[in-house]
Amino acid sequence: MEISINRLEHKYMEGTPFERRALHDINLDIPDGTFLALIGHTGSGKSTLIQHLNGLLKPSAGSIKMGSTELKAGGKKQDLKSLRKKAGIVFQYPEHQLFEETVEKDIMFGPRNFGVSEETAKRTAAKVIEMVGLPESVLSKSPFDLSGGQMRRVAIAGVLAMNPEVLILDEPTAGLDPAGRVEIMELFYSLHERNNLTTILVTHSMEDASRYADEIAVMHKGELYLHGKPTDIFSEREALQKAGLDVPETVQFLQKWNEKSGLNLALSKFTVEELAKQVSQSLKKRGN
Ligand SMILES: Nc1ncnc2c1ncn2[C@@H]1O[C@H](COP(=O)(O)OP(=O)(O)OP(=O)(O)O)[C@@H](O)[C@H]1O
């Protein structure tokens, strides 16, 4: 689903002496099926921005359009509800929100809350548990008897059960070990690819942004500072450094390699292993 953010502004505690502007004049169009990485230093406004996409915060000015729903400043409750249904949000440590006695009940909670029948919600639970790579036998277990990684998958299944048209991921790999991080990121990437699901990833990992994103949006002091393809964003090292960020090491390596070799290898969507493969292939082509 296409997303269009127009002149969005957000002030916390608006109209009080403690008023604080967290977003200023954000304009951002995200085409349907895009994987967008939202990066920026702590306090730059990333969470505030994504909470508007899920109807958790209302704009102080401007608007957000998601498909046919538009939420404007002073918008109706109905529009907030409609956005909430369209956008599934995976918060940091989503497993902390599990609370039912069984995995199945936990996954069914969202759909049941939105009026889906028990039978359909059960079928959905069986479908989404498979989508997150867990066996159906897990459905009858208590979520609290599962490993941390499995619990996180169950929480993600609960978000998928709402059949979101946009997936918003707020640092979804926080607290996982390196292997767990790769597994969860690969899961999101395959969900995005298989379903052409518009995905917004809030991350502090420049490596993840370079590996998975079609587009990168950089927030700085409540403003949209840079937005473009990873290759273009990573060619702005000085600007990134001004915003307290840097080009990931793998990309720096490749930029140097391209400069020295005169070859033009792709700057995004690679792991270190793929990077080594690309370099060795290009060496072979040159007869080295
Ligand atoms: N509930 C709130 N009340 C008042 N100010 C807030 C509130 N939440 C965030 N802010 C302020 O709004 C600004 C943007 O915060 P936000 O949490 O959106 O940044 P962020 O980029 O997501 O940061 P982080 O990477 O640390 O999660 C910050 O100055 C922050 O202090």
Describe what this molecule looks like in 3D.
The protein has 288 residues and is α/β, with parallel strands linked by helices. The protein is built from eleven helices and ten strands. A hairpin with a 7-residue loop joins strand 1 and strand 2. The model has no long low-confidence stretch (mean pLDDT 89). Bound molecules: adenosine-5'-triphosphate. Adenosine-5'-triphosphate binds next to strand 2 and helix 1.
Secondary-structure blueprint:
Elements: E1 3-12, E2 20-30, E3 35-40, H1 46-53, E4 61-66, E5 69-72, H2 77-86, E6 87-90, H3 103-113, H4 118-131, H5 148-160, E7 166-170, H6 178-195, E8 198-202, H7 206-212, E9 215-220, E10 223-228, H8 230-234, H9 237-242, H10 249-261, H11 272-285
Parallel strand pairs: 3-8, 3-9, 6-7, 7-8
Antiparallel strand pairs: 1-2, 1-4, 4-5, 9-10
The structure holds adenosine-5'-triphosphate.
